[in-house]
Structures are given as structure tokens and as C-alpha cells.
Design goal:
By secondary structure, this protein is an alpha+beta fold. The protein contains five helices and six strands. Bound molecules: zinc ion.
């Protein structure tokens, strides 16, 4: 497909797509090329290099978000947040539900802890009013 910049006798500018350069002449002679503004078929090609459409269309940057991808900046911010939590929390591993309870009931000093908990554990901890927050799993966390 070839795109031509066109102009009608009244000076309206518009664009038209044609399969070949001779296709424009054929269509124009047949009166098929008309101005979208005033419908005249008295149109001419403007002096402009035709641009050829290819399949390699550049995807606009904003498409990243609409396509459901997490923007790079957001991943970076998330990683930083997770790192801050890890740096400031004691990793209690499998003992997490137990430690969280001890802390909640004042059996141990309140501190930041992190660890593993099953969905069941999480459910009961939340029911007991213990504030916990799941850490997001980031792609490179996979060991
Ligand atoms: Zn016109």
C-alpha cells in the first residue's frame, strides 16, 4: 500500500491509500478518488514522497500499559520496596505464623518479620487481627 497526500481543487488536504502508484491514476480517472470534505473528484497528489506501509509498525510506548505489562519503573519501585522490607525484617521462615502470633500477643518484642505462611495460616492470622502483608513475587525471586 502506498499513502498519498492529496489536495482537492478547493485546497482541502487529505490522504489516500492505493495499492500501486498507477492505482491512483486509475481510480482518479474513474472518479473514485474524492475529497472527504467537499466530495469533488478534482483532486491532485501533493508533492510529497509517498510513504510505504510495512508490517514493521512501531508500537507506541503507551501500548505497554494497555497490553497489561507492568511498566519497568513500577517493577523497579516494587523491587526496592521488597528489598527494604527484607533488609529490615527478620526472616523466620516456616515459623512465620507462630512468630507473628507471639508478637501479636506480646510474647516477643514487636519487630519486622517475614517468612513463609500457607494460605490457611494467612487466613487465620488475619482473623486474629494480626496485620500481615504478602510480599509480591517478582520474576527473579525464583530460585
Ligand atoms: Zn475538497
Amino acid at each position: 500500500m502506498i499513502k498519498y497526500a492529496l489536495r482537492c481543487i478547493d485546497g482541502h488536504d487529505f490522504e489516500g491509500w492505493f495499492s500501486t502508484s498507477s492505482d491512483f491514476d486509475t481510480q482518479k480517472q474513474a472518479g473514485f478518488v474524492t475529497c472527504p470534505h467537499c466530495s469533488t473528484s478534482n483532486v491532485e497528489k501533493r508533492l510529497m514522497a509517498p510513504s510505504v506501509a510495512t508490517s514493521e509498525k512501531k508500537v507506541p510506548k503507551t501500548a505497554d500499559m494497555t497490553a497489561g505489562h507492568v511498566p519497568v519503573e513500577m517493577v523497579a519501585a516494587l523491587k526496592q520496596a521488597v528489598k527494604a522490607i527484607r533488609d529490615n525484617c527478620e526472616d523466620v521462615g516456616e515459623r512465620f505464623p507462630e512468630e507473628a502470633r507471639k508478637m501479636h500477643y506480646g510474647e516477643t518484642d514487636a519487630r519486622g518479620i517475614m517468612g513463609k505462611a500457607t494460605a490457611e495460616d494467612v487466613g487465620s492470622l488475619l482473623e486474629e487481627g494480626i496485620e500481615i502483608m504478602p510480599l509480591p513475587h517478582l520474576p527473579e525471586d525464583a530460585n
